[in-house]
Write a sequence for this structure.
């Protein structure tokens, strides 16, 4: 046992690293609060009062806490997919489209000819719908991966374009009664079969959201403590070198596209299951873009994704509650976008290298 | 027929301006997927400056300034800090929708309408072909149409344009031959900001007389598609914009059961992917596109 534990020098390096991570997150929370206060001030609010109201809106009562937790879970799923993508050096920014396509697939399963059977299966039926969503997301994402291998199409452009194609395609599905359109005229699917409707319709809070932190821990384990995780990161750090070492980079990249799509698909399917139907605007719109900010702020580390996702979810829920509250008339939900944009710029300005880790962590991990 | 021609050119104008600006930028090796945001800033600044002064021309200038302001942030991040261009572009989009939305709601002007450009010459509306194509259009459309040959000449024939292309193809070699790479990219960023901003301003001071948040409705992304489809040159990009403009016009006039409007909506994006597949061997994209360059 003595020989296996890292030498003291590396252990302190690791501790320092943990401390560094924790302090970065704290600084980010603080910076977010300060930015928020400034924006609120500019909108003619009392920053302290408004911030208090925002925090109460996100955490102040059981309903708010449930809403924040549910959104944080979905954001965690999306962001984990992005962490995998960026770690492998593929700039997959298509979570939004993948999740929407997956949501359509989940709706098809939950309202189509198989819905009665799935509904009678109970929990197993819910899992089938989730897996169907994940598969659909993986498939949609794999298109970009495949285009990259086949024709060298840059995934940045293809995933971006596939986002919009998915959005419009799902809208089309929702206008055709033969496909997804429900009995109502508006762009809305029929309700899910009774057995598939997750509890907590108002907050979308249900036991399934606890799968998100579990997934983050699993992702951490896979990325940092398995051979395939090492290969994946090696591919992202230096593709040519990895290839020279005999790592099957093409296969890894394609797999990462599918993994990212599956994570986004899980989130999309969860949105449908929690909301009992699919509308033209999904349950969690634009979370696919927001998740990029989450993954970046989390420094592409799965475990850090959880607190960052909670922070972002709180921001969403809090601003939603502020918008309706009396006495805060100047408050607008658009502010969330400003804050997200500034946070991303802040992360970038900090000098985060997307595809290469700063030297100390790489050295520490190599020794561990 | 005249109406159709007039409408197609009108619909294509914001696409043209945005795509030409983006094309210029991409030729210098910088890709900005925040074109949508830059257009939003242009639409916002253009509308409110026009409203304040009553002059659409001031609005147009303000729209250009608004676009440049956002591109200043973009250039700072990508050229000075060396941040990833794609992620910065996404942040620019978020900032633009957030800032314009927040300011719009706090200004609380509601459905007020501002000044608009009037057609160049209503008297000449019946001139065959030129009437709907030119005389019924506003000066902003003229600017957009004029920009096509100007940019083409600048990029393909002038020495400055050749330098810009060199910066986009091989910045290190360009630097070695005495071209200031970063300076060139800074200038291009600001120029692209002005052009895209004007494209956004067209929406709020020419096509309509009002501003609502997110009135760009994805045109910035269509513009990016047009650049790829137009093979990164002015004439091709313009042709792609006119093609998309025609498609959008057809969508607007045809009943939706013949051509589902969603199919027209995603046509530009689908065609972009197809174009990228088809042209993978000829490599018309600038070689250094998207790669940060730091001295």
């Amino acid at each position: 046992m003595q020989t296996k534990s890292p030498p003291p020098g590396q252990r302190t390096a690791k501790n320092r690293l943990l401390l560094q991570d924790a302090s970065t997150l704290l600084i980010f929370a603080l910076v977010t609060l300060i930015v928020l206060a400034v924006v609120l001030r500019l909108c003619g609010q009392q920053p302290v009062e408004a911030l208090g109201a925002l925090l109460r809106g996100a955490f102040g009562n059981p309903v708010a806490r449930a809403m924040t937790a549910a959104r944080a879970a979905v954001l965690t799923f999306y962001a984990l997919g992005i962490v995998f993508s960026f770690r492998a050096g593929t700039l997959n920014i298509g979570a939004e489209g993948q999740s929407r396509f997956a949501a359509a697939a989940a709706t098809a399963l939950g309202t189509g000819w198989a819905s009665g059977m799935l509904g009678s299966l109970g929990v197993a039926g819910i899992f089938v719908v989730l897996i169907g969503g994940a598969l659909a997301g993986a498939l949609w994402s794999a298109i970009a991966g495949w285009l990259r291998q086949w024709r060298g199409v840059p995934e940045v452009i293809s995933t971006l374009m596939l986002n919009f194609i998915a959005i419009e395609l799902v809208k089309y599905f929702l206008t055709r009664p033969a496909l997804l359109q429900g009995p109502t005229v508006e762009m809305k699917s029929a309700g899910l079969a009774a057995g598939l409707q997750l509890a907590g319709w108002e907050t979308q809070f249900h036991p399934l959201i606890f799968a998100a932190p579990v997934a983050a821990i699993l992702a951490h384990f896979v990325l940092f403590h398995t051979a395939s995780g090492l290969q994946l990161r090696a591919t992202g750090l230096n593709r040519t070198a990895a290839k020279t070492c005999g790592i099957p980079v093409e296969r890894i990249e394609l797999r990462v596209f599918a993994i990212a799509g599956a994570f986004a698909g899980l989130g999309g399917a969860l949105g449908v299951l929690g909301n009992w139907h699919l509308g033209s605007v999904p349950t969690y719109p634009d979370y696919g873009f927001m998740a990029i900010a989450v993954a970046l702020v989390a420094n592409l580390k799965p475990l850090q994704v959880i607190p960052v996702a909670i922070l972002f979810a709180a921001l969403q829920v809090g601003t939603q509650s502020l918008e309706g509250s009396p006495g805060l008339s100047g408050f607008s939900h658009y502010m969330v976008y400003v804050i997200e944009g500034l946070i991303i710029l802040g992360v970038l300005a900090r000098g985060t290298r997307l595809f290469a880790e700063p030297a100390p962590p790489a050295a520490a991990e190599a020794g561990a | 027929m005249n109406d159709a021609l007039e409408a197609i050119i009108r619909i294509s104008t914001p696409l043209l301006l945005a795509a030409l600006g983006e094309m210029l930028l991409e030729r210098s090796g910088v890709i900005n997927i925040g074109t949508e945001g830059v257009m939003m800033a242009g639409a916002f600044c253009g509308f409110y400056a026009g409203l304040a002064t009553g002059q659409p021309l001031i609005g147009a200038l303000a729209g250009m300034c608004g676009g440049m302001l956002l591109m200043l942030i973009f250039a700072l991040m990508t050229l000075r800090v060396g941040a990833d261009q794609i992620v910065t572009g996404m942040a620019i989009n978020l900032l633009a929708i957030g800032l314009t939305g927040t300011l719009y709601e706090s200004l609380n002007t509601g459905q007020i309408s501002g000044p608009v450009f009037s057609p160049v010459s209503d008297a000449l509306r019946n001139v065959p072909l030129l009437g709907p194509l030119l005389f019924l259009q506003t000066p902003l459309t003229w600017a957009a149409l004029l920009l096509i040959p100007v940019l083409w000449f600048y990029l393909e024939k002038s020495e400055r344009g050749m330098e810009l292309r060199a910066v986009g193809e091989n910045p290190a070699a360009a630097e070695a031959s005495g071209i200031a790479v970063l300076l060139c990219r800074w200038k291009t960023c600001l120029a692209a900001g002005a052009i895209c901003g004007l494209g956004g301003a067209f929406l709020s001071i020419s096509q309509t007389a009002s501003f609502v948040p997110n009135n760009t409705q994805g045109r910035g992304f269509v513009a990016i598609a047009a650049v790829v489809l137009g093979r990164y040159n002015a004439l091709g990009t313009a042709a792609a914009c006119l093609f998309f403009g025609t498609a959008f016009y057809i969508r607007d006039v045809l009943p939706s059961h013949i051509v589902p409007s969603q199919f027209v909506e995603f046509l530009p994006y689908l065609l972009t992917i197809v174009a990228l597949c088809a042209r993978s061997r000829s490599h018309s994209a600038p070689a250094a596109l998207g790669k940060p360059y730091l001295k």
